[in-house]
Amino acid sequence: MDIEIKSPIIITLDVIELDEHIPSLKFNLAIQVDKYNYSLSVSSHVWLECQCFDEFVDKLLNDDIAHLKDMNGCFELIVNPILGWLECSYAKEDLHGYITVSKGRERLTDDAKSAMYAAFNDYPKWW
User: Fold this and answer.
1) How far apart are CA 77 and CA 88, in angstroms?
2) How many CB atoms lie within 10 A of CB 31?
3) Which site from 18, 32, 43, 73 is most exposed, i.e. has the minimal number of CB atoms within 10 Å?
4) What pTM, to 2 d.p., does this model score?
5) 3: Cα within 13 Å, side-chain hemisphere
6) Rounded Cα distance, 100 and 111, in Å
7) Among 91, 102, 63, 90, residue whose Cα is nearest residue 79
8) Sheet containing 10-19: which strands, arranged edge to edge?
9) With 0-12 CB in 10 A as exposed, 13-18 as middle and 19+ as buried, what is 66?
């Protein structure tokens, strides 16, 4: 795993492609939620701009609201340390315009926030 978040939900990001023209990374995204007799599993590909990635890490470090959004607007991860929650959403549109959306908000502990910062900050950057 390149980036793995284990709490409050499981999110993994594995790099599968790089683009130097528009500094960005293509990740294989996996989201797994299992709780309260509810299960959600998302598996897809997302492109993240390196600049957005860096801003997300900087905001995590400074206890500011951190927002990570893919280039197509399908995936969003928002960390709000002020309110103490993490919000994750994913949407996918098919060729006919039908959309499937998953979205959730979870309580974010200081330990989970620190682990998330470490997971993103420790990712080896080429840019």
Assistant:
1) 5
2) 22
3) 73
4) 0.91
5) 24
6) 32
7) 63
8) 3-5, 10-19, 24-35, 38-49
9) buried
What DSSP string runs through 11-50?
Answer: EEEEEEEEETTTTEEEEEEEEEEEETTEEEEEEEEEEEEH
- Position 123, amino acid: Y
CA gap 86, 66 in Å, rounded:
9
Residue whose C-alpha is closest to residue 89's, from 28, 34, 40: 40
SS3 letters for 83-122?
A: CCEEEEEEEEECCCCCEEEEEEEEECCHHHHHHHHHHHHC
